[in-house]
Design brief:
The protein is an all-alpha fold and 183 residues long. The protein has eight helices and no strands.
């Protein structure tokens, strides 16, 4: 029975659920508070990600040998990457009503990570999960059950759109499915 539940979890992760207008509004409202502290939150997300999944550091020559979270926190390269990650998420959140823009941004992220950086797609699932954990903890008052549900759909949307570039082999085909979840 456990195997079946695990398979259902994987299936759920692979499918992007539609984000309603009300959920988009909740995401944008909570994100506005998060993004006000974008660098610090982004650094917290990346540090937790690298502490929880140290193998992910292999893709970052500048800080792959760092073990100490305080050293990571002081790293200018890590801070710069945190700002880029948060900036990409901000672009997605700001454009939740423009499915083509969301698709375009996340396809570019996916292609860069698939083709240039050769990052395994599983790390996006792990990173979006860590992102949700950190936001839920640091913004607990804003993170109502409604917000949690909306952000769960958002993390799935990010993961499915970014990893679509891997499935496409970096090509432009299959664009129709990239907008799933934003209708």
């Amino acid at each position: 029975m456990e195997k079946v539940q695990g398979e259902m979890e994987i299936e759920r992760w692979e499918r992007s659920e539609e984000i309603s207008d009300a959920e988009k509004k909740v995401i944008q409202e909570t994100w506005s508070r998060v993004y006000a502290n974008c660098e610090d939150v982004g650094v917290s997300i990346l540090i937790r990600f690298f502490v929880s999944f140290p193998s992910a550091k292999q893709y970052f020559s500048q800080f792959k040998h760092m073990e100490d979270p305080l050293e990571m926190e002081r790293s200018l390269q890590l801070r710069k990457h945190a700002r880029r990650v948060m900036g990409a998420i901000n672009t997605v959140v700001e454009n939740l009503n423009d499915s083509e823009k969301v698709s375009s941004v996340l396809a570019l992220v996916g292609k860069a990570h698939a083709l240039k950086h050769k990052v395994e797609p599983i790390y996006f699932k792990k990173l979006t999960g860590v992102m949700l954990e950190v936001i839920a903890e640091e913004y607990a008052n804003d993170f109502t059950p409604e917000a949690h549900g909306a952000w769960t759909k958002m993390k799935t949307l990010i993961y499915t759109h970014v990893t679509a570039a891997y499935k496409e082999g970096g090509g432009r085909g299959g664009r129709r499915h990239l907008t799933d979840g934003l209708k």
